[in-house]
């Protein structure tokens, strides 16, 4: 009896000292705060059991306009590391992120993508298009940056993060092949994707689609009447069968476009809803990969 009591005490002692690390919370896990679901997904896959991940923006939230709430600020303050996309995606959070960066590791994971592989943002001089997750090849750089940030925060578990990353990176490489294979089945003349805002340029570039958005790269500037009329004319002239709603942009914008096309004597369908900027990570472990398959499923009517 006495012996087992002693063992329990020793275990409790070891456990409590093991937890007293400056870089983790009471559970002993590294406390990660990610801005968007796709980054939260990467952190969960690479961090596994070693991390506790909180994602600030839920599915359908517009990251261009998103401002940190009081609750977010307290989460950010408690975080061991903060992971965000960068490339001006979280434009309205710039100040908060900068402030946090003075105190803790705050990493813009997609700014590790080589400049020559990035696309320029047409509407903004000297800025890059931030929607890099739409090219699986490029997203692998961001995931690698997540790995490096976790290792820097929790060096003793380096080997585990590397092994998890290796496994996930391999899955992404496989995903890239499957995306290419599926989307290549769409006839070239039908590879025109029209959505609510310019989130899909990387997608178009990587998988051979001509992409047109009603609004620009950011949703900050609203589409003018002329933009709507020009795009409507393009759709009617090219007899494009479907246009797509985005979960993070009001549906009425695409409905206005549909009405403008109708006034030009052509009926265009509204296809499914695409998650553009804030994906629905239904199953966190398979989140990004699952969402890719759901994107491909929604594009199937174009086949
Ligand atoms: Zn966007």
Could you walk me through the main structural features you see in this protein, from its secondary elements to its overall organization?
By secondary structure, this protein is an alpha/beta fold. It folds into two domains: 22-180, Nitrogenase molybdenum iron protein domain (Rossmann fold), CATH 3.40.50.1980; 185-302, Rossmann fold. The protein has ten helices and eight strands. It has helices at residues 2-19, 37-47, 70-78, 94-101, 136-153, 158-183, 201-207, 225-238, 251-263, 287-299; strands at residues 30-34, 51-55, 81-84, 105-108, 192-197, 210-215, 242-246, 269-274. Helix 2 links the parallel strand 1 (30-34) and strand 2 (51-55). The protein is globular. Residues 64, 131, 197, 199, 276-277 line the site of zinc ion.
The string of secondary-structure elements, in order, is HEHEHEHEHHEHEHEHEH
Structural class call reads alpha/beta
Low-confidence stretches: 1-24
Task: Write out the distinct hetero groups bound to the structure.
Answer: zinc ion
Radius of gyration: 22 Å
Strand composition percent: 5-15%
Number of strands: 8
Head-to-tail CA distance between termini = 71 Å
For the record, the CATH class of the largest domain is Alpha Beta
Q: Strand order across the biggest sheet? A: 2-1-3-4
The CATH homologous superfamily of the largest domain is termed Nitrogenase molybdenum iron protein domain
State the helicity in percent bands.
40-55%
- CATH level 3 topology of the largest domain: Rossmann fold
**Cα shape:** globular
Given the structure, what is the number of helices?
10
What's the architecture of the largest domain in CATH terms? 3-Layer(aba) Sandwich
Provide the domain count: 2
Mean pLDDT: 84
The main pleated sheet reads as: 4 strands, parallel
